[in-house]
Amino acid sequence: MQAKEHWEKVYATKPTESVSWFQVHAEQSLRLIRETGVPHAVAIIDVGGGASTLVDDLLENGYQNVSVLDLSGAALLAAQNRLGSRANAVQWIEANITNAKLPTHAYDVWHDRAVFHFLTTADERITYVDAVMRAVKPGGHVIIATFAEDGPTQCSGLPVMRYSPNNLHAEFGTPFTLLRHEKEEHQTPIGAIQKFIYCYCRKDKA
C-alpha cells in the first residue's frame, strides 16, 4: 500500500480524536512558534498538519497567514469541517512533502510534528531537507518533532526513525543553527506514553 492510500484509510475509518498522535491542543508546538517572536502576519506552514488542532490555535492566537500541508485529503477535510468558516483563512495543500512544489522562500516558520520520522530512507530525508532549504526564508525558523531515541519504533503500523537532538540536527546540517531542543511525553488517547523530541533551528541567511 502506498503512503497516501494508508493515510487516507486511517482518516476515513478512525475518528480524528482516536488516533495515537491526537492532541486536544498542540501546546508545545504553539509555544515554540510563539517564542520565535515572529509577527502574526508572517507565513507559517504546518507540514503533515492534517487534522491537527494546531491550526485552530494559531488562528485563535491571531496568526493570519497559515498553510497546512498533508498528503491525506481526508485529514485536511476533517480539519476544514472542524473549523467551519474559519477554514477560509487557511491555505490547504494536499501533497507529499517529498515531491510538493512549494514556492521559494515563502515561509517564515516551518513546523512539522511527526512527518520527518516516517522518512526511513536517506533519499527521502535529503529531499525533505532540500524542500526546507527552498521554501523557508533566509533567517526563517524550523521546528521539527520526531520520536525520541526511546520512543516507539512504529506508528500507525509503519516503521519510523528515532532521533536524539544532535542526530536530528545532523540530518539538516550546517545551514541550520540549532537554537534549542526539548522533550515531550505525549499521552495517546488510550493512555500510552510516546516520547518525542523537538528541535528548533534557524535557517542561516547565507
Question: What is this structure, in a nutshell?
Answer:
By secondary structure, the protein is an alpha/beta fold. It is built from 6 helices and 9 strands. It is 29% helix and 30% strand.
If you had to describe this structure to a student in words, what would you say it looks like?
- This protein is α/β, with parallel strands linked by helices.
- It has one domain (3-203): Rossmann fold (3-Layer(aba) Sandwich).
- It is 29% helix and 30% strand.
- The protein is built from 6 helices and 9 strands.
- It has helices spanning 3-13, 27-35, 54-60, 73-83, 122-135, 165-172, and strands spanning 43-47, 65-70, 90-94, 107-113, 136-147, 154-155, 158-159, 176-187, 193-203.
- The strands form 2 sheets. The protein has a 7-stranded mixed sheet, with helices on both faces. Strands 6-7 form a two-stranded antiparallel ribbon.
- A hairpin with a 2-residue loop joins β6 (154-155) and β7.
- α1 (3-13) packs parallel to α4 (73-83).
- The longest helix has 14 residues, at 122-135.
- The radius of gyration is 16 Å and the shape is globular.
CATH topology, by name, is Rossmann fold
How does the major sheet shape up? 7 strands, mixed
CATH superfamily caption? Vaccinia Virus protein VP39
Name the CATH class: Alpha Beta
Q: At CATH's second level, what is the architecture?
A: 3-Layer(aba) Sandwich
Strand order of the largest sheet: 3-2-1-4-5-9-8
Write down the overall mean pLDDT.
Answer: 94
Uncertain stretches of 5 or more adjacent residues: none
Helix content: 25-40%
The structural class is alpha/beta
Number of helical stretches of at least 4 residues: 6
- Span between termini: 41 Å
| Number of DSSP E strands | 9
The gyration radius over C-alpha positions equals: 16 Å
The domain count comes to 1
Could you say which overall geometry the principal axes of the C-alpha atoms support? Answer: globular
Give helix and strand order, one letter per element, not per position: HHEHEHEEHEEEHEE
Beta-strand residue fraction: 25-35%
